[in-house]
Specification:
alpha/beta, Molybdenum Cofactor Biosythetic Enzyme, Chain A, Molybdopterin biosynthesis moea protein, domain 2, six-stranded mixed sheet, 7 helices, binds adenosine monophosphate, binds magnesium ion
Length: 423
Amino acid sequence: MRESLPLAEARRHVLGRTPALAAETVAAREALGRVLAESIDSDRTLPPVDVSAMDGYAVRREDCAGASIDRPVILELAGEIAAGGQPPATSLSPGAATRIFTGAPVPPGADAVVRQEDTRADGGRVEIHVAPEMREHVRDAGEDIRAGDRVLEAGCVVGPPELGLLASLGRSVVAVHRRPRVAILSGGDELVEPDRPADRGQIVSSNSYALAGQCLEAGAEPIYLGIARDDPGDLRTRLRAGLHADCLVSSAGVSVGDHDHVRSVLADLGCELEIFGVRIKPGFPMAFGRLRGRELPLIFGLPGNPVSAMVTFEQFVRPALRRMQGHRVLTRPVVRARVGEKLQKTAGRAHLVRVRLEYRNGEYQATPTGNQSSGVLRSMSAADGLLLFPEEATEIKAGAFADVEVLDLDVLARAPSAGGSPE
Ligand code: AMP
Ligand code: MG
């Protein structure tokens, strides 16, 4: 077991032992946010033929040379093609134009489309008021996709455009990495469920809610294992149930107190602890392990304090859950931010300071959200990010810069350069 590791090393250890989960086939319309487990090649060309980009007239460009509103060219009307219609078998004759609509196939022989606005219909003829460019308003066959193209790579995250591409290629089902199932257990004799009256000395188990929310936000499926008493027997039964999941997250009872049984019960169940203690605050007493000889589940014993539990989830569990789903970007975006007030600490642990971020005068400004006690969940709620106060540093001067992991991406919308919010 490795004890008291620096943050980066502990995270490397965990991620180095986290596999991507197997593929499953899902309906493409359910695939938003998932990561492709297959590459997608096209069996078709899109658009399949040259189509019109405008409502207007398909013409032969040479017939329209020199046309203007004052000296229109007059062409004979030769048929009409609507979107979804078939192109005529014969070539457009010299001196003729075909009425055409957006998305309709351009007839053979035509090499441009003149917009309706640049024409005037006149019975069986049409006046052309402009000389079109070569292939003007014609969408070339294959301008989007050609048969045989690799359209999407395995590992790509499916967003709305990718859903559209899958649909265009006729893919109604697609292989994506499975979502991890995460068993969540809270532990402590003082804990009660939120819908039960809490006597003096009891506290509501908020971790189960916050951690389940973090799971969902990370794309995983939480499974609630309830509250275990500070009793090895009860803990054992519940932890064992969690070993069927891909990841087991237990909070509290992991430290060294007389009532902290999580580590010993996990050991009884065959779990080999690989890490105990990470040099961060909040979140020092964090444990990580796996069952002997088994790749999964990943087993995390998080500290019990609400902020410590959330911060260690953020640093270790979230990146692991993303790796399981095949994501390549595992951590949050980091911005450099100017720190508004002097920060001090002793060396030996990195501090993850809850801060609010604002974009002012061309830079981000970070301001601590108040009481940084690991029990103060409100300062987590008020935070836009976690400022990294490095392990060996003892001071960040007011006005100096520090790295901030951005938890709330909406903060970027507060930057004037991003356009701000619409009125
Ligand atoms: P422990 O790790 O068991 O010493 O717990 C540390 C602190 O976190 C104690 O004050 C607990 O009451 C609190 N705590 C533990 N589990 C939870 C939970 N599920 N929800 C809210 N607070 C908790
Ligand atoms: Mg406890």
